[in-house]
Amino acid sequence: MALRDVKPTRSELINLKRKIRLSERGYNILKMKRDGLILEFFKVLDEAKTTRGALEEKYGKAVGMIALSNTVEGTLALKSAALSVKEIPTIQLKSKNIMGVVVPEISSSKVKKGLLERGYGLLGTTSVMDETASSYEDLVEAIIRSAEIETTMKKLLDEIESTKRRVNALEFKVIPELTEARDFIKMRLDEMEREELFRLKKIKARTKG
Amino acid sequence: MSAIVGSAPYLYVCTRFRVRRMKLIPQEEYLRMLQMSLPEIIRLIQETEYKREIDELSHSFRGIDLIEVALSWNLAKTYQKVLEIMPEGLREMTESYLRRWDIQNVLAILRGKAQGLPPGKIKEVLIPAGELDRDYLDKIITCAEPGKVLESLKRWRLYPVLARELPRATESGSFSFLENELYKQFYHDILDETGAGIKGGKEFLEFLRLEIDIRNLQILFRLRVNGAKGEVVTFFIPGGTFTVEELVRLHETSSTDAFFDSLTAQLKNRELISLLGRFRQKNGLVPGALHEIENALTLMQYSRLEMMARYHSFSIWPILAYIERKKQEITNLRAITRGKQAGLSTEQIRNYLVM
Q1: Which of A89, A137, A172, B1 has the fewest CB atoms below 10 angstroms from its CB?
Q2: How far apart are the CA of A64 and the nearest CA of chain B, in angstroms?
Q3: Which of residues 224-263 of B touch A (CB under 8 A)?
Q4: Which SS3 state, helix, strand or coil, does residue A90 take?
Q5: Residue B246's closest CA among B277, B214, B220?
Q6: Interhelix angle for B27-34 vs B317-341, to 10°?
Q7: How confident is the model over A81-136, as pLDDT tens digits?
Q8: Tell me: the pLDDT tens digits for A52-71?
Q9: Inter-chain CB proximity B229 and A114 less than 8 Å
C-alpha cells in the first residue's frame, strides 16, 4: 500500500487499526496452523518412510518371484495362468480432514486372494506360481497403502507451503504496511492537530492585537 | 486299445528312441552352460537341433522370448513325430499320456477367449504337443467365444467333462475347477487304458499310481502351506495310494507332526517315506521349502522312470522315458536362459533344474 494513497483521516485510522488487529489474529492462527501441520507432516513422513520401505521390499520380492516363475514355469505357462485372473481388485476412495486439509482414505478389496480363489488350477501349476501370485498381491496392497500415505504427505506439504506463504505475507508485508500506514495517519493527524492549534493561536493573537 | 502282437514293433520303436535319447543334452552340458554367459548359452542352443525353430520364429519374437517359444515349438514337433513313428496300440497309449498338453492348450484358449484376447496373443502361449495339433488349435482359436470353442471340441476325448463344467466356469469366471476336473478325468482315462496288451503296461500302472500320489502330495502340501479352506476334496486325484477322503483328513490334521506321522504311516514307497522324513527334519512345511519338496518329488518320479526304462528295455517305458527326458531338456534350457536373464545366481538356477 503506497503511503500517498492513504487518506489521513480518523475513520481511516480506525479502519486500519481494525485491519491490523484482524491481521495479527490471523497471523497467530496461521502460525499455529503451520506448526500443527508440520507436526502432522512429520508423523505422516515417518509412516511414509515405513510404507515406502515396505513397498520397495515387496517390489523386490515380486520381481524376484516373477523371475523365478519364468525360470521354473516358463513365460508361456505364466501367461496362461495369468489369464485365469477374473476378479480385478477394486479400491474405495473416501476423504478425511487433517487440520482443514482434505486427504484421501483408500481402502481396497479383492486384492489378497486365497489359493482357491485365484482362478488357476492346482494340478497344472506349481507352488512357485502361488508364491508369485501372493507376492504380487502383497505388492498391490503396499502400493495402495503407499498411495494413501504419500498423497496425504503431498497434500500436507502443499498446505504447509501455502500457509507458510500466508504467514510470511502477513508478517513481512501486510502487517508492516498497515502499521506504517497507521503510523503515517497518526503522524499526519498529530501534525494537522498541531497546525490547527498553531492556527488558532495565531488567530487569537491577531484578535487580541 | 488293440494289443501289439510280437516283439518286433517294440524292438524297432525302442531302438529309435534309444538313438534319439543319445541326442539329448547330457547333465554335464547343463553344468557347463550354467558357467556360461547368456549370449554364449543362446549361441549354443542355436547350434543344436533348435536352430530350425529359432530361424522360423525369428521374425515374430526376439531375445529370450524367441528361445522359449522355439523350445516349446521344438517340443511340440518332437512329440508329434513320436506319435507318427508309433505303431498302433502304443500310439493310442502315448496319445493318452500326451493329452495333458491338450488340457493345457484348451484351457489357455478358453481363458483367452473369456478375457477377450485376440487370437494372436492366445496362439503365443500354446504348446501343441498333444493329440490336438497346431492346425486344429489354430482353427479353434478363431472361435469367437468359449461356447463356440466347446462346439469345435466335440470329438475330443475330454469333451464330456468340458461340456459339463464349462457353463459353471464361464458363469463363475474361474476355470480352476474345470482344470482340476479335466486333469482328474485325464488320470482316470489313462489308468483305464493302461495295463493289458502292452509290454510293461502293468508296471506302468504302478508308475501312474506313483505319479498320482506325488501330484496329490504336492497339492496336499500346497493346500496346507497356504492354509486353504473349503472344498479341497475337488483338488485330489482318485486312483493313488490314498483315497480322496484320506487326503482330506490329512489336510484337516492340525498338527504338522501328526500330519507327517499319518502320511508316512500310510505310504508304501520307501523312497517317498525317506524323502518326506528328510524334509520333516530339515524345515517342515514352509512356503519357501515347498518348491524344494516338489522338485525332489519330481526327481524321484523321473529316476523311477529311468530305472524302469532300463529294466524293461523293449516296452512302453523307453518311449515314456524319452518323452519325459525331452520335456526335462526343454524345462532345463528354459530355466537356464530365463534364470540368467533375470540375474539369478548359478546356485539358484541349479536348484530349479531337473537333473
Answers
A1: A172
A2: 8
A3: 225-226, 228-232, 235, 237
A4: strand
A5: B220
A6: 0
A7: 887 776 778 888 898 888 888 988 888 887 888 887 787 888 878 888 888 898 99
A8: 999 999 999 898 888 888 88
A9: yes
